[in-house]
Structures are given as structure tokens and as C-alpha cells.
Amino acid sequence: MIEENATDELGPLERLLAERACERLILEHVRRLDLGDPGTVCELFTPDGVWEWPYDNRRIEGRQALRAYFAGRPADRLSRRMCTNILVTVDSPDTATATTYFATYRVDGYTGDTIVPARPPANIGHYEDTFRKLEGRWLMASRTLVLPFGGPTEHVGGADRER
Which candidate, 137, 129, 79, places its Cα nearest to that of 104? Predict the structure, then answer.
């Protein structure tokens, strides 16, 4: 007897739309961190959403806590995240997972009046995400940061300092 997979309920178009919606959340997350209002990242998560970095024992849970955490980044931070190898797997009509590789270029002390000379990325790793569809909208349920390569954030105005 062949067991039916929960994703068999989805046709090719529904699966593609779910994958694209989740991929778009991944990209919108980094866009808001780099170019938008970082505190609004919380809107991309479920009400009980979680962001965590197990290495540093950071676990931020719930939209209010996520808003405070992401809005608390230094105002003089300049960052750009390059995401690639985004692989979304739809597990059911209302759940999905993804793995995304990234490199983060980041400095503090940015005033906006000059171009920052190129430097190596501050972090290279991947995200492990879970998604849930709530009331017809895909949202991040959790994001786990896996960071095998990382270092302090350089301060462009002087000595390096970690933040």
C-alpha cells in the first residue's frame, strides 16, 4: 500500500505559489534589515514566531519581542545580506521549510557621506526556516541562524568593536 503524502493535496501551481510566497518572505526579511525599518521584520513572523541563534543562546519569541530585538540594531549600522541557494520544501498545504545560504557585509559608524571600502563579509552561514500559512497568508514560524564563519562588526570610524 502506498501512503499518500500530505503535499499530494497540492497541484503544481499551488506548490509553486507556496514556494514563491516563502521565498519572498526570506528576501523581504533581509530587505527590511538592510534597507527598510528593521523593527518591521516582526510582521513577517507568526504571532508566536521565533528567531534564534543556538551558538549564542539567543532566542527571541513573539512579535513584540522580535520588534524590540530587530529595532534595537545600531542606527549607524550599514549592512547588506547576499542570499543564495534558497531551497523551499512545501511539507503540507499550510507548512513549509527552507534553507538559505547568506553572506553579511556589515560595518558600524556609517554616516552615509562616503562609500565604505570593500571588505570581507562579517558573517557567512545559512538560515533554517519554517513557515505556516495563517488565514491565507504565509508567515515565518521560526528562523534559526547557523553561523560557521563570523567575526566582530568593524567600526569604520576607528577601532573594531563587536556588537
Answer: 79
Q: What is the pLDDT of residues 72-129, one digit of tens each?
A: 999 999 999 999 999 999 999 999 999 999 999 999 999 988 899 989 999 999 999 9
- Please name the residues in contact with 125: beta carbons below 8 A apart, sequence gap of 6 or more: 101, 102, 145, 146, 147, 148, 149, 150
Residue 155 grid cell = 567600526
pTM attached to this predicted model:
0.89
Side chain identity, residue 24: R
Amino acid at residue number 113: D
Strands 123-134 and 137-150: antiparallel
Residues 125, 144: Cα–Cα separation, whole Å:
11
